[in-house]
Amino acid sequence: MLLFALASSLLLQVTSPAAQSRARELRTIAIDEAFAAQAHLKVGDTVTVSSRPGATRTADGSESGGDLLYSEAVIIGAIVRRGADPSEVARGDLLVRMHLDQLQRVSGYGDRVDRFAIATAPSTPVSEIIDRINHVAFGFKAYPSREIAVETSRTFQVVSRFHRAIGVITIVASSVFLLCIMVLKVEERRRDIAALRLMGISRSSVVRSIVIESALVAVLGCVLGVALGWAASLLVNWHYQALYRTPLEFSIVTPPIVAFAVALSLILGIGAGLLASLRLVRTPPLQLFGR
Amino acid sequence: MRAALAQASLIRHRSRTLLAVLGVAVAAAMLLDMVMLATGMRESFRELLLSRGFELRLAPRGTLPFDTDATMPGVGAITAILRTNPDIREISPVMGGSIHVRVGNRDVSGSVLGIDPAVQGDYQLLSGRDPTTADAIVVNDYLLGRLGARAGDTISVATGYDPQTRTYSGQRRLVITGRVKFIYGATEQSSSAMRRETLESMSDVSKRDRASLFMVKVRKGADAERVRDWIDAQLPNVTAISIATAIAQVDARLSYFRQLSLILGAVSLFVGFLLVTTLVTVSVNERAGEIAVMRAIGVSKAHVIQQIVIEGVAISLAGAVLGLGLGLVTARYLNAILSAFPGLPMAIDFFLFQPRAAWSALGLLIASGIGAGVYPAWRAASLPIAESLRREAIA
To answer: ipTM above 0.85?
Structure first.
């Protein structure tokens, strides 16, 4: 299956009631929700489309201005919701969908397109088709869709790298924070630990009990953190989907992400507990009592 | 005296204090980065727009400069109308397009600006001279590298290329008269500039007497917003954009980063606050007996409070100073990541260091340090003296 695509910038102007009487002869276009909301347009409205301000030559050939490009009266046939496209999300562009020949005429492109999209049969090897097309191609080149997707999502790759860097800084900050809290928590009980040691409880038993305690604290923290992260993710999606009017998901909590966060918290929690307890059991019990 | 006691208390638990300072430093670094991100992007963009003194930009109605291929017809007529306003000092029409140069077997393409060299505000001349003659072109280093050419070389430049027939149109031989840096150019963007008349003569008839953009300087002391309103009223097919409007539009597009900086900045501040509060509270609990003795020998409540607050502030201050250095290093790294945004001008900095940002971060941290010390200090000063002393003696 072949799809032809042509993109261009257009101007829309609401036409007079007199022009609307000819509405039955006119062709239709589709506009997106944001455009309809911003320009107060609804299905059935008649508008004039042109690629430049002042383009007044109409499709039937009559000319009322000096511009060489066409303008055309059309009817809003549909208002569509845009798909989730990361490369468009923050641009706030307003989109119009037209028939290919209509856009070619209005934009003055002639018999040209920007690209062809080719759908292949499920069992067909795509790389072979691309090789064959490129072998016989004259003045154009075929690319796999994945390659195009990588190129067009460069903005999101940058944002993703930025998020990763922020994530690393956050992990460092939380590690120091956790270590500090665990050291304080264990040190607060230095008299209890001194008493246990004087009663004959071995160093390893004391260390084990503190490590188990810190692991339990880390597990509880993980459960709370995952719940908080999931709620924050819902909030982020709700806010940005409404802000950019897109169904795109901005934050996704996946099992690998949860597993990574839980593993990291456990390692940090247990490590911090171990360090703090080792430091205390090495100190003589009487010194811990302050004697 | 109070400071000496606070210092002694902090030194007594060196490792604990060091860890807390480190924790506050990381939080301070993050806070500084977020303050820089929240204010720097806008300031950097403002500086970029004002760098050549043009306060207004005129684009085809409903578009942003160079956001679409749309152009404005009647450069002469628009310029004549603009000249009737005494508040307008300088007008620089710019026409955008693309050029193609054949190098060996391959086609090297790039963008081109048709400008008036006497009033242009798009590039800085690095070496050579402006394209003042009809056969002159100036290029940036990236394009120069791709062409494998040097200043002084003559190249065959075309404004059209048909890949199917591999033929060039609007071809002309031009001399590279200078190396330039485009102020609004993105990284790895091949850019060039020539006289607008030269570009027009190389383009087809439909592109004659058109401009993609007008840059306008207003008279010193004149209100740019008033001039903008006047232009909007006089030229219905044109949108006049002032610095404030342009910043508002960029703000809207990059609002995500502002919101992110606000959230992460608040979280960093809260983490720093929590860390100092915990440390000071534990420290006060450990020294309950010591504080009770001080109170018993006549040391005032205010004295105790001040000593403990000083401890909190000292940790915050040490952490903040360390964090500011750390923050500058991480800001540089994060800025390098975001500079790779496709199409973003090279001169835009997301993380711009401003003394005001550093002072804001430092002020917030000291305020949070004071806040963090107040509660444990109040608790310590309110301890029942006799009961605390008895508990300490039993322990």
So the answer is: no
DSSP label at residue B72: E
pLDDT tens for the 395 residues of chain B, in order: 666 766 776 677 777 788 888 888 888 888 888 888 887 878 888 888 888 788 899 998 877 788 777 788 889 999 999 999 999 999 999 999 999 998 887 889 999 999 999 888 889 899 999 999 999 999 999 999 999 998 899 999 999 887 777 788 889 999 999 999 998 888 788 999 999 999 999 988 777 888 999 999 999 888 889 999 999 889 888 889 988 888 887 777 777 778 888 888 888 888 888 888 887 887 777 777 778 788 888 878 888 888 888 887 888 888 888 888 888 999 899 888 888 877 777 778 888 888 887 788 788 888 887 888 788 888 877 777 777 777 766 66
> With a threshold of 0.80, does the pTM exceed it?
no
State the smallest CA–CA distance between residue A133 and chain B in angstroms.
14
- Report how far residue A181's alpha carbon sits from residue A175's, in angstroms, rounded to the nearest whole number: 10
Q: Which residues of B touch A280 (CB under 8 A)?
A: none
Q: Which of B20, B165, B334 sits opposite A162 (nearest CB)?
A: B334
Domain boundaries, chain B: 2-49+254-394, 62-236
B237 close contact with A: CB closer than 8 A: yes
Q: How far apart are CA A216 and CA A234, in angstroms?
A: 27
Rg (CA), chain A: 33
In whole angstroms, give the CA distance from residue B158 to residue B155.
10
Q: What are phi and psi of B126, to 5 degrees?
A: -90, -40
Asked if B332 reaches chain A (Cβ–Cβ under 8 Å), the answer is: no
